[in-house]
Amino acid sequence: MESLTNRKQVVSDKPMTFLEKLYLPAIWGGMFITLKHIFKKNHTIKYPEEQRVFAPVYRGMHVLKRDEEGRENCTACGLCAVACPAEAITMVAEERKKGEEHLYREEKYAASYEINMLRCIFCGLCEEACPKEAVFLTDRIVPTEFDRNDFIYDKSVLVEPIDDPIDITKRQNTGKRGVI
Ligand code: SF4
Ligand code: SF4
Predict the structure, then answer these.
(1) Residue 29 pLDDT level (bands cut at 50, 70, 90)
(2) Which of 23, 73, 145, 176 makes a 20 to 30 Å CA pair with 169?
């Protein structure tokens, strides 16, 4: 059969020579490679003390946005959930009641909205699919957790606080697909 990479090696079980049986040349060879790397530029960083600058198109933790009057944009249409290749999004839709106009922008809203961050691959397709400018990925990192259940983010985590809006202008200015 034709080889794809030309990296195939024929395995040999020939007996070891005296030098090979000593193992020392192989150990010195390994040490030499290690020493060579000590003087090379280090490509790793001491996270979290040091942090790299993220690209403007970095896709991190989601936010559910509110409008300028503080009402939730999401109408629980379900398009983000349908677009999600990881099936990470679930929601329950409810009709807005009289007197709730200051809470939800349209007649329908998400009574519950959850994203399973262990499933999410941060592809951004939910953001692309949303017709209401409701869900966005941000440059915030998803924190580590000890319990798997803590990675299921509900509205208490996802909806932006009224008094502390999450800035998404960087993503909007660079384009959702990262075209500047
Ligand atoms: S970023 Fe991608 S994988 Fe994550 S919730 Fe959105 S559509 Fe699903
Ligand atoms: S976030 Fe957008 S796409 Fe998803 S349910 Fe809400 S309005 Fe629909």
Answers:
(1) very high
(2) 145
